[in-house]
Amino acid sequence: MKKVLFVIDTLEMGGAEKSILEIASRFKNYTPVVCHIYPGDALKGAYLQQGIEVIGLDVPGHYNFGEAARRLQSTILSVQPAIVHSTLFRSDIVARRLRKKNGLPLINSLVNNTYHSSRFKTASMLMKMKLRVLQVLDAFTARKADLFFSNSEAIRQSNARSLVIPLDKIKVIYRGRDIEDFSNVPPEAVATLRNVWGPHRRILLNVSRLLERKGQMDLILAFKQVHNQFPDVTLLIAGEGPFRKVLEAKIRAAGLTDSVQLLGTRNDVPALLKLAKAFVFPSHYEGLPGALIEAMMSHTPIVASGIPENLECVQEGEAFIFRPGDVNDLAKSILAALGVHGAAAQRAENAYAVARQKFDITSIAAQYEAAYDNLLQR
Hints:
Elements: E1 2-8, H1 15-24, E2 30-36, H2 44-49, E3 53-56, H3 65-79, E4 83-87, H4 89-97, H5 99-102, E5 106-110, H6 117-122, H7 125-142, E6 147-150, H8 153-163, E7 170-172, H9 179-183, H10 187-197, E8 202-207, H11 216-229, E9 233-238, H12 244-253, E10 260-264, H13 269-275, E11 278-281, H14 290-297, E12 302-305, H15 308-311, E13 320-322, H16 327-338, H17 341-358, H18 361-376
Parallel strand pairs: 1-2, 1-4, 2-3, 4-5, 5-6, 6-7, 8-9, 8-11, 9-10, 11-12, 12-13
Helix pairs in contact: 3-4, 4-7, 10-13, 11-16, 14-17
């Protein structure tokens, strides 16, 4: 059976890392091998449980592209894959360096809106210069890839512009999830969580890395308005990231330490979603939001920012959509989701139907393998 070598920066708890696991574990015609270039392997055990070989190169430093290419070349010679499939900026750069040397078909996955205008607006002058340098490097080397997978049409369009990639080289394949993991959650798991926060508390949930672009600062400010009207509501934010201290300071300053909790990384997200009265996703920009798809599959009412990436998943009839970055509109949408139960439940049911049609993981895995076949037949 032909092998696909997935190359990624690390195997930490990120959306791209989890998506590769979900997709590759369902391959029928290809054998996946996963190689992470830099240290960090929190998900290694999960890959091994699915019978997927994991190779860690543990290249020191943040970039060190020369050493990374040397170690990856050794891995390629050992694994003998039919296709190399890289994901995330650093891995893309390293894999592109080896494209001509190996002659193997190379696929890059586009999963982020890395060069979104809002990043440049909020960045320091030094960071703006760094982003521009990385963008030039990314665009210059992108021509070496044979094909790109984009996890959304919005990301396809954005990266085609930013990296000067012809649109016909970018194939949209959505991220997927196993719908049963989120629609059929054991009631006792939900009951256990309800006892933790109290049976009479109404829970709002956000699942996301703690990053400025994820909009959690907006969420805390909006939640202050909601909490003033409904003191029985609690906000839970599941995820970890470098923005934690900033968020903790804002929670304290707003006097919300008893009502807002940063949960860190969790392995019980399906049960948390079933517990929640509403899932709130206020991102300023995204790739394709896996956490939003999980909420759709769980029948949980959704409040989401009206960014293009979110709108590829849910529309107004399937969620409560608010203007990105508008704290007052976010608060209004949360209050609407907490209001008339029938309206929220119907939107949640509509979102579930969309998820079943567009984001079923078995179908996504089949699309990957079909694209591999087509590339090898060129």
